[in-house]
TrEMBL record:
Organismal lineage: Bacteria, Bacillati, Bacillota, Bacilli, Bacillales
UniProt superkingdom: Bacteria
SUPFAM superfamilies for the chain: Multiheme cytochromes
Keywords: Signal
Species this chain originates from: Neobacillus bataviensis
Record bears the keyword Cytoplasm: no
A single GO molecular function term of this UniProt record: oxidoreductase activity
The protein's name in its UniProt record: Doubled CXXCH motif protein
Amino acid sequence: MISKKSYIFIVIIFFFLSTCIPSIVSAEEQILPGEPTQVDIIVNDPPATVEQTPPIVEPALVEETTPIVEPALVEETTPIVEPALVEETTPAADTIKPTLLVKSITLQSDRLFVNGTVADNQPTTQPLTINVIYPDGHKDPLVPDSGGKWSFQTSVTAKLNHYKIEAIDASNNITEIFVQRPYIQSITMNVFKYRQKVYESPEPYKEEDVTASVNILEKDVITRASLNQMIIIELSDTLSNAIDNSNNPFIIYDKNQKEVPFDVNFIPHSNKITLTNKVPLNPGETYYLRFNPSLISLDYNEGMRKLVDNLNNPFFSITKQFTTVSNAAKNFAINGYTVQEMTNLQQLPHGAYNNNVNNCAICHNTHKGANSSLESKDIAQGYCIACHDGTTGPKMVNFDSSIKSKHETQKITEHDTKSGSCTACHNPHLTWSEDNPNLLNDHYVYEHNAEDNWEGNLVGKIDSNVQMCEACHGRFTYSYKSLAEKSGGYNVLHYRQESTAIGNITETAEVKNGVTNKVLHVDDYNLCFTCHNSEKQSKDGTKDILTYYTNSNSQHKLTALDGSKLNGSLPCSECHDTHASKNILLLKDKLGHENQQVFSLTKIDDWTDQKKREYCLTCHNGKTSLFGVTGKAIFDETGQSLISTSDSVKAGHAKDGTQVCSECHSQSKSFTEAVHSPITTP
């Protein structure tokens, strides 16, 4: 019998065998033939790692570091980078000259004040020397302010075409300019005033012509020029070089471009030239006198004589229009009294009515007048043009079949039934005078006594162009107008042009219907602004231009450098023809005084943004000048903008830009505003 201890031992052995042997068999079944055991994997992994590291990673790092990276850095540093830096630095020597401009020459008391600007491409920290060089060669330094503005003053008798300004930058680049070019001071012509009978014994009477010598630079467009002329031209400087028929800087031609032959007389070392026509001029004809025409336009032969002073400084060019006396005015005495003489005077319808009231019947019909003024119908075409088509009176410029626009006011309400376009500007009842050779409308301005009142209101200053004298004085007006004349109150409504414009803007207190208003007047062009004002615009749609001309911020104000008087807004006549034009909108087809540009616009559909840009560029090209001032160019020879304040501004001022100028240069984005009163924008 098995003991109890033996039994326990046998059970333990049996339990051990039944547990361990199946586990070993199961483990052996999971290890397939040919597969490594866990021990094999642990043992084989390290050799694999050792084999990959030496040939791939470490040698590759050595090869990239030694032969590729380091030599490449050496090659790029030595021959490419460093020499390139040296090449860019070497040619940077400055060769650009400073820019010098004379901006204004003004007379104050007994001194001439010259103002200008200087600019340079170098930093403002670099020294910039400016000197005024006097005729004797000595120099005085000029010190510009931080904005490059400089000025100096000299005697009123100084000949500024002998003075120079020089600017020298830090690289010794030198710019030297004359302070002013020489110019024509006066052009004196003989004009016909009237023919009269002079009663002397033993003859019953004789007829004589009353004439006058007139400086046509002080008149807009002179009329009644004598047919036989001796034109005296006074220069701003004396000359030593010869001027004769073979070296002649003048040309006189008619409206058909036909030249007039004349003799030239000049005494060396003087400043006067005399022109005498070889054959009489045609009566009632428009002529043009041009001086240094090769500077005006390429239409003239560049080989034509160009007058320069003794320092080879060219005189400013000039063009003056004049009209000769008509046969009607020239042939009949104004104080004739026979029936035949009075009949003859009907060919001279303007003025002198004290001698011949029969002239009234030419325009007025006592019993069958078409309106309250007893005028015949369509006086402008039926009467004015009956003479001013070139038959007996001077023909208006451009008034032919090629015109595209007329200065037509017939449709304006107050001219509907009157004589229309002509009397909107001209007074046919006036008598010719030197001060008003074109019979422009006139007015009276009279300052009443401080205590004068009308219907309880103080009268003050009255302008007959605002309120008619007849509104208060009735049939006694004539005597009161005489008082105004004696006090200097008679004024012609001006349409001043190239050589006569001044640029004044005045403010007056004017009374109308008892109400006093402050009114701005642009005296040079007040004939134009009798219609082109805000009141007329609201009434009948006439364009208001006066508002633009009284804008103090306008950039179309300039100071003349060519010896003329302008110090203000550009004359209307610089852009517009007067009576008619080959272009629409009365735009001139040639613009500028020197280096003129041609412009064509024959239909309104072509008045696009691009065409408007083209119009502005006729002056803003760096070549064309007005009054001696060259229009500022907006792009260079390559077409790149010269204005670089921002990318959008650069794009707008580039040659291939498409933006219309009024987008930036007017407050209302109106081209009408931009062209009459452009502004600068930040």
